[in-house]
Amino acid sequence: METDDVLEIEKRYQDEWLLFEVYEVDKQGRPIRGKLLAHSPSRVALDEFSRKVRCHDGYITYTGDRPKKGMAVVL
Amino acid sequence: MTELHFDPDAPLLIFPCTIEYRNIRRVWLALDTGASTTIIRESVLGDIGYSIEAMTEFASFGDASTTHLVPKVTLKSFSLADARIDSLEALCYTIPEEHGIDGVVGLNFLRHFRITLDFEQGILTLDRFKGL
Known about the structure:
The complex is a heterodimer of chains A (75) and B (132).
Chain A: E1 3-5, H1 6-12, E2 17-25, E3 31-40, H2 43-52, E4 57-62
Chain B: E1 2-5, E2 14-20, E3 24-31, E4 38-41, H1 42-47, E5 58-62, E6 67-80, E7 83-93, E8 103-105, H2 107-110, E9 113-118, E10 123-128
Parallel strand pairs in B: 3-8, 4-7
Antiparallel strand pairs in B: 1-10, 2-3, 2-6, 4-8, 5-6, 6-7, 9-10
């Protein structure tokens, strides 16, 4: 898997869940460099992978609309 | 002081947060002044070292439609960007995948700060109260 600029990697995987191992963060703790460990349109699949790997400092993000377009959310 | 930009027209105000127990996960949570307690997706709590099956503390919370009895944990730390609180309680719950987030930041975190939501500029500021 790729090791690079986190934002650049996110652009390559639209509408997917991504799991990174974090190597470097900015002053606000936002990951800027890391290794992409897994990506999937399915969060369940990502979680299954995440349970199997050892990753001390990880970053999980979704690259699509949050929430999905047209959806109203009451949390 | 913490200052973060957000999209004033977005359906949810989501921000990068860091949760820590044995491991660290950096996730996106929605700011929710209507939530009493911070809520984190069950699988993420598993990632940072909690055993969901072994959890013995529970709390009741109600959402817009019903009440739930869910596991309660105490995080080693919780940060929204660089605004950090140690030993923060969080509830463990399932978050719909369609939301694209891993939980909500509730009042038990937010009340430690003077908060400004500027919807004209799209800027959130958090200024920690002294003595808390």
